[in-house]
């Protein structure tokens, strides 16, 4: 059985690319997963888990997630190896995601005002469209 589940925050925005032949979307990102214990200095440490996802899930992740977002990832651990330019053999371990759940809401962008009114953004005088009677 090869199942991995973790909750963490993205360390940077996801990177997306497409395969040359079939144009399959591939997204890569890393999440920081807190450990359950503190180190000798009393600080929490984190593990940085590389994640890859494919096709629609890759596009969904790339279009909706940014650095700092909290996600739950489930998938399988995959290892591979390659020969680096200096001739040394390198190993890579990553999670191939089957599922990515968004656990928080995106932060408001700088061009929108933050609000506590269930998503309603107040607009000021000149931004209002002209009122016409009987428009409804």
Question: What's the arrangement of secondary structure elements?
Answer:
Layout: E1 4-10, E2 15-18, E3 25-38, E4 44-54, H1 55-64, E5 70-83, E6 89-102
Parallel strand pairs: 4-6
Antiparallel strand pairs: 1-3, 1-5, 2-3, 3-4, 5-6
Structural account:
It is a single chain. The protein is mostly beta strands. It has one domain: OB fold (Dihydrolipoamide Acetyltransferase, E2P) (Beta Barrel). Helices cover 7% and strands 47% of the residues. The chain contains one helix and six strands. The chain has one helix at 55-64; strands at residues 4-10, 15-18, 25-38, 44-54, 70-83, 89-102. Strands 1-3-4-6-5 form a five-stranded mixed barrel. The longest helix has 10 residues, at 55-64. 12% of the residues are buried.
In CATH, the architecture is Beta Barrel
CA-based shape? globular
What is the CATH T-level topology? OB fold (Dihydrolipoamide Acetyltransferase, E2P)
Helical content, roughly?
A: under 10%
Overall mean confidence score, pLDDT: 85
> What is the CATH C level class, in words?
Mainly Beta
Number of helices: 1
Main structural class: mainly beta
Kindly report the spatial arrangement of strands forming the biggest sheet.
1-3-4-6-5
Q: CATH superfamily assignment?
A: Nucleic acid-binding proteins
Organism: Caloramator mitchellensis
GO cellular component, one term: nucleoid
Biased composition (Polar residues): 108-117
Region (Disordered): 104-136
